[in-house]
Amino acid sequence: MNAQNHEPIWNQTRHLKEYPPLSQNESTEVAIIGGGITGITAAYLLQKAGKQVTIVDQGRFLNGTTLHTTAKITAQHGLIYDQLINSYNYQTARHYYEANHEAMQLIQSLIQDEQINCDLQQHDAYLYTETTEGITKIEKEFEAYDRLNINSQLADSIPFNLEIEKALIMKNQWQFNPTAYLSYLIQRLDQGSTKLYEHTAARTIEEKSVIMEDNTELTADRILICTHFPFYTENKLFSTRLHAEKSYVIAFPTADPYPGGMYLNIDSPKRSIRETTINDQSYILFGGEGHKVGQGEDMSTHYDALKRDAKAIFSKQPIDYQWSTQDLVTVDKIPYIGPVSKEQPHILLATGYRKWGMTNGTAAAKMMADDVLNKTDHKQNIFSPSRSSVTKGITSFIKENTDVTKHLLKNKLSHPKGDLEALNPGQATTLLLHGQRKGVYKADTDQIYMVDTTCTHAGCEVNWNSAEHTWDCPCHGSRFTYKGEVIEGPAKENLHHEQFSIIDLMKLNASQDNK
Ligand code: FES
């Protein structure tokens, strides 16, 4: 059972022309940095409202976290509403639900208005447990749904070969194809007044100017930072306010009739199930195995676990796609959306969607667009990046996440010794070269790309992602190509890299052994 494509299934429907980089200084009313669901949706809403918008991305549009989603459009975000009522209050839980419910409605109405062909389907969302301990948690969440007047019901079974104890159904949620949807919105931006630039990496902000890595400047009245991990935080230490979680998805065709629904368990390990149709072929998306970065097993272990469990439920499953994703989680599970600081209200950021980027990202786009258009939305307060609950929670958050640091330190001090001769084309390993940990990727029979595995953001050690052929940083989610080029920040600089012939590298490696 070998995966054919080490890429997200949504790549099949990502139909985009390539846009040029920003090559000279420009000014605009609204500058949007980051071309995922948040940036694209905000640009669409602002263009529609008559604003002059410029959107830039450091790589290609729709190539980051948005591409790696399972694309459930739901306000059922795991167990959260009972916790929000207890940790905060009813009003906070209400606002969180309303923001996400409205985001769901916005996506739906936009698809209807624009007649977008993106496989939008209505399904119930299920949260289930296979353990007796989970029953109370499900029942408490149901009580919270009831208080919030969410259309829901409890069930004792789900339509799969799984012995469950209890399920909580949130009725009438949605799912879609995210790249079909967003590719269409990008086309609409292109046909409208919005300027689009790719391969344009923002480095910092000075006053009202976004400074790019080649020092070109984009000056704007308002600046929206929609870059997964914010590339600019005005000295706020977001590294202590966000942690990254990794999870995995496999996709396989099925001839089994799918019973409908989107599923997520509350137990560990996590399992997520939905169906999608791409080019007339029905696929099951089977995901989970989430863990804090730096605490996972070898990637193949996580994929093997998904394949084993999928096999127990679905009859036929040659795996066609597999991919992993890194999501950011905030101190209190509520995303940060709003002004980067009180002193710089013209700069807004959005991050920390906790794996629920389709609705949280759309909610963020709506809130940021409303802010630019001077519309007041009281719900925004619970998402404010400078809310007091965040400051209070940071100490325990850091304590909880020190184990991540320990893992990273262990990784840094380990002395890898990869076997270059055993490396096949398309494989990578790490080795110690003259006291420095290096990552080497064999591109073909002769060419080797070697990178310094020290992440250029804050010095953690990157690990090889054998599924997507990238070097991924476990600390805050930066990803680099096998050549060391930044795909996704917060890292702004490429990994230091060199290209060798295999013979030269083996000679170099052997020379240090002989010393
Ligand atoms: Fe922060 Fe790598 S992303 S150290």
From TrEMBL:
InterPro entries named in the record: FAD-dep_OxRdtase, FAD/NAD-bd_sf, Rieske_2Fe-2S, Rieske_2Fe-2S_sf, Rieske_Fe-S_prot_C
Pfam families (UniProt xref): DAO, Rieske
Keyword Disulfide bond tagged: yes
Residue ranges annotated for the Rieske domain, each copy included: 415-495
Keywords: 2Fe-2S, Disulfide bond, Iron, Iron-sulfur, Metal-binding
Keyword presence, ATP-binding: no
Protein name (Swiss-Prot/TrEMBL): Glycine/D-amino acid oxidase-like deaminating enzyme/nitrite reductase/ring-hydroxylating ferredoxin subunit
Organism, scientific name: Alkalibacillus salilacus
